[in-house]
Specification:
- By secondary structure, the protein is an alpha/beta fold.
- It has 13 helices and eight strands.
- The chain has an eight-stranded parallel barrel with strand order 1-2-3-4-5-6-7-8, surrounded by seven helices.
- Strand 7 (253-257), helix 11 (262-270) and strand 8 (275-281) form a beta-alpha-beta unit.
- The two termini are 29 Å apart.
Length: 311
Amino acid sequence: MLRRMLLAASESDRVRRLLVSAPLARDVVARYVAGDQAAEAVAVTGRLAASGLLATLDHLGEDTTDARQAAAAADEYVALLALLGAEGLTRDARAEVSVKPTAVGLGLPEHGEKTATENIARVCGAAREAGTTVTVDMEDHTHVDATLRIVRTLRDDYPDLGCVIQSQLRRSADDCADLATPGSRVRLCKGAYNAPPDVAFATRAEVDRSYARCLRVLMRGSGYPMLATHDPRLIEIAGAQAHLTGRGPGDFEYQMLYGIRPAEQQRLADSGAQMRVYLPYGSDWYGYLVRRLAERPANLAFFARSLATRS
């Protein structure tokens, strides 16, 4: 119930205004977001790299409403990749970027898919020049087919383009089977968007079981699994599957969100595993943060203390 309420709040302009104006909101946001500007995110990336952690950077923003905004979002990624490259952080894809299709035009009323494809292609070109990769984020269930079409189209020129599958969706095991091909980079996460019951599993236990099924499909396939979870049990299952399928530390990676279970992130990296931190930055943090609270409701206490001080 709390998860559904938080996901509804992520789409509420009224709740957005309340939380964004809370006096200590920025202190809470700083736990999960690496600053407003690209230079701040690059500095955090450097600190992570010094600790043996990989990173994927996300410039926050989604549901772009016009083509100029979409082009500006792509421009931001091109500039970010140049900064990362100049700092030597893109070597061997130690730092890459994650792009939401609706941020670069997918939701536009006219030619949205074409616009997003062209903008993501531009980001991919900048990533290749910098020596790194791009992963296309998955958003709500209404965008899944279009997002996968974009990925398939762009993989002709950029075969290292990654994509994301959400275990909360009932279709995801089949999608994983389709995507578990040689060289295919696939991030598996649980998902943090509302969806009707005929499309998505309703309970945490069902989502977890689906994650385990999808994980096994990817680990037994010939692609490169990127396992995004903070769940100790699923991390344990991932390690067991790596052993069963003969995957070494360089044949898959773990991913976790910036600010969540940092000690476990470091433990995995110190053990020799590939551990990538999902590192968001930018001022449009509201939707991202509330979905993180929905994934992990215990984090709500941090924001509640902030709201209690609102004058």
